[in-house]
# Entry
Amino acid sequence: MMREYWWPIAASIVIIALQAGIIAALLLARRRRHQAEEETLALRRDLAHAGRVSAVGQLASSLAHELNQPLGAILRNAEAAEIYLNADPPDLEEVKAILADIRQDDLRAGGVIDEVRALLRRHSPDLAPLDLRGVVDAVASLTRPDAQSRGVEMAVEVEPGLPVIAGNSVQLQQVLLNLVLNGMEAMEQTPLDRRRLRVRVRPVDAAHVELSVTDAGPGIPEREKARLFENFYTTKTTGMGMGLAICRRIVESHGGRIEAGNERGGGATLRVTLPAQGAQA
# Structure
């Protein structure tokens, strides 16, 4: 009788043993998967924390770089004011002019901080009717001493018939200032007799205005064009990782667009196109 059922019993025992083994293996695999998931989540948290720390570091570095120009101008003006005050007699008219410059530089430094806040908060700027000629004149006046010290010949062309735009003067000055300083920095290796920077404003049509800055540097490598306006992306050792990203943020908040391209004869041009007041971008 036992011999008759031996093989079915043995087969059942083997099947049960195999099922137990499979169940044990599945439980072990489940445990390992759960452990792997926990390790993955922990790694993601660590990477997210590292990313936030890196972003804060990049932001601090870029903010310091952006503030360096107006703060440096404030220091130079303060030193000049001290010289005029110590003159006999003191040149009070020059001191008044210097104080006006210091005030403008202080407002510009505050504008940099406001734009970083706006980039993070992504709120819309306060816009008002604006003639771009005034924006260009203010930035040209500010940057000409820097251009002279770098040996850069700066030409400003503002064509007649510009339509009025809806814009924020401080923010658009910050955009143009970034583009001009970028253009000057791009020509550091350019021979002195070829260091030319052109700032041009022209009406594209009745509904749009184009603001462009052209340098005589080496141009923009093709592989960098796509990422040029990304947050924290920079090809410079000094780090401009937020400058162009802020420019794009400001321009887009004005309903415009910003583009970069190379010139046939060498150099690069950054173009900002803005809609006229009441026009669609």
Remarks:
- The first strand starts at residue 128 and ends at 130.
- The chain has six helices and seven strands.
- The radius of gyration is 31 Å.
